[in-house]
Amino acid sequence: LLYFHNLNQNMVLWVFSGASLLAIMLLVQIFFFEKRKASKFSKYYTTILCFSPILLFDVVNNFDVEHYNAYVAPAIAVLHGKIPLIDVFCHYGFSYLLFTLVFLFLPNNYAVLGAVVSALNVWCLILFLLMLKRVVKNPTYFLILSITTVFGSHYLLAHSENIIPSALAMRYFPTFLIMYCLFKRFYTADSNTNPGLFASPIIVGLLILNVLWSIESILFLWVMVSAYFWLTIDTWKELCIAIIKLIALTLGVYLVIALV
Predict the structure, then answer these.
(1) Using one digit for the tens of pLDDT, what is the confidence trace for 179-228?
(2) CB 31 within 8 Å of CB 138
(3) Exposed, middle or buried: residue 56 (CB in 10 Å: 0-12, 13-18, 19+)?
(4) Which of 71, 92, 164, 189 could form a disulfide with 96 if both were Cys (CB 3.0 to 4.6 A apart)?
């Protein structure tokens, strides 16, 4: 059995390595060779493919209770009147408050939470494919890359990502949302007509949500938004001002929490 396990692990490694190499080769061809014009039919099936992760929605019956309880315990405590950061603490951030909101309307059990986590994970994958679709114009390449990245990684995992809530969406869901908004702004036909990033209430709301969601969301937020500023701002002065505003927004959220 041990030999079979090791053999299986090696086979998975080779399959994943081959898929990764294929993906790299396709990316090189996409960016350095001529792009083909997509037909109307290809636009339809690529759009359908973007929402295909809905097929990955499931509610597993072997929950990792220890990882779920890191969210469930503070969520139930807040549900019964405890105050976050005074009576209740969670090292993952404030994302557990989503479970509190769910518990107000649905039964308090792991199956419901598993469905919530699975739905959020599906939306993360959908947002990823929508971003990939903006970069990869060739429908054939998009089909191959989406299968190897999303479905390939899903089935190569030793277990479903829904078993552990902190594996994907419960840590990075707002990160995927803000990333999609940045992609959409960056690939707008006339980027000069886009208002400033901090002028959009939706963007500011997502920035605040990222700050509150988890520590990892904050780190990815700084990296992504700083990279966006680097690509879209022409002068060093404006770049520094934009980054200072981002840091000030982050610290301002924590200051408001501390004062409250």
Answers:
(1) 999 888 887 755 555 567 788 888 889 888 988 888 888 888 888 899 88
(2) no
(3) middle
(4) 71
